[in-house]
Design goal:
Largest sheet: 16 strands, antiparallel
Number of strands: 16
């Protein structure tokens, strides 16, 4: 977050003359920060700190998407600078429990473990160009193309199995991943760079004066091209094992494989949202939303109150159990949401802030 704030102030002061030009030529200037994180095994704070803490839940999915944007817009076009931080994790419940037991120095609790962990991480910056196409008063399609410069990445998986008995433990794992920094086998970090693009769209349709439909997709097409990327292809076996008197595990792994460099194309998980909004009174509306990232679906219900120049809204995410509240006007919009009032216990956190700097 501190990096995003620093970027904002640097860009704001560097582009100040351009802001003034745009305002004089029917362009508005804007900035926004959006951050959403979710985990179905533990609070976000515990996931960040390697699952150290309370017992985790069975689960198989966690992700975070964070985006800072600053730019210019008019009735037809949007041009902006963006900085993104995206992390997507899929795993078996057994894998999560193994990591929890390791990082909390706790005893092995079952005999067989099905190990699988897929990670797709990208930190990037770049530019977005969006075209707003209004075909009629009740139908429009927005298309956006983003150029991304890759800064850091991790893309690949670990799979295999582990077994534990009263007096011995063994594991056989296969590793196949590219990375900027190898946090598993501790290979020395090297500088890498990449270039790529993503495509987004938004379709707005108003069948009746009271009913509005909005379908949007983010990263529906994405390609990030890494050149001479560091990678590891290896088999790891753990056969030399000992237990202490408390049943805690100590292992000496054996690793065979290959570390090298290769070109790699990274694809980001696609995100889709379908919103149906119904105006029940001139001052109030209700909505339903289906949000999906990859194969994971989040049903959401919401309500909005309209006043002169200001709207208040709230929503409930049925899957994550997060409550979101916020307000919006022509110049400022703010959304805050969590599934728990305590920051360090929340498994879903949503923060959105946008500001229109036009005069």
């Amino acid at each position: 977050m501190n990096n995003l704030i620093s970027i904002f102030f640097v860009l704001f002061f560097c582009f100040a003359p351009l802001f003034a030009f745009c305002q004089e030529n029917n362009w508005s200037t804007f900035t926004s920060i959006k951050s959403y994180s979710y985990s179905d095994i533990a609070p976000i704070d515990q996931v960040i700190h390697n699952l150290e803490g309370n017992t985790i839940h069975d689960g198989d999915f966690a992700y975070t998407e964070n985006k800072f944007e600053i730019g210019f817009l008019n009735d037809n076009w949007v041009f902006s600078y963006i900085h993104r931080y995206d992390y997507f994790l899929e795993f078996t419940p057994d894998t999560a429990h193994l990591l929890y037991q390791k990082n909390n120095n706790s005893a092995i609790t079952q005999e067989q473990y099905d190990v699988f962990l897929y990670a797709n991480f990208l930190e990037s910056n770049g530019f977005t160009l969006k075209r707003k196409n209004k075909f009629s008063d009740n139908f429009s399609i927005d298309l956006a193309l983003s150029y991304l410069n890759g800064i850091r990445t991790k893309d690949g998986y670990i799979s295999g199995n582990a077994a534990a008995t009263v007096d011995e433990y063994s594991a056989s794992l296969y590793l196949d991943y590219i990375y900027s920094e190898d946090t598993i086998l501790k290979r020395k970090p090297e500088k890498n760079s990449a270039h790529g693009f993503t495509v987004d769209f938004t379709v707005k349709w108003q069948p009746t004066p009271e009913w509005k439909v909005r379908l949007s997709g983010r990263d529906v097409i994405s390609r990030i091209y890494w050149n001479d990327m560091t990678f590891t292809n290896a088999n790891a076996t753990t056969n030399t094992i000992s237990y202490d008197e408390d049943g805690l595990l100590h292992s000496i792994p054996g690793i065979s494989g290959y570390e090298g460099y290769k070109d790699h194309i990274q694809k980001l998980p696609s995100k889709y949202s379908l919103i149906n909004s119904f105006q029940v009174k001139h001052w109030a509306s209700v909505s339903t939303e289906i949000f999906a990232i990859d194969q994971y679906i989040f049903p959401i219900i919401g309500a909005e109150i309209h006043t002169k120049g200001l709207n208040y809204f709230s929503s409930y995410n049925i899957k994550s159990k997060a409550i979101n509240v916020g307000f919006s006007s022509n110049k400022l919009s703010l959304t805050l949401g969590m599934d728990d009032t305590s920051w360090d216990k929340a498994t879903a956190i949503n923060i959105e802030l946008s500001l229109n700097l036009s005069i």
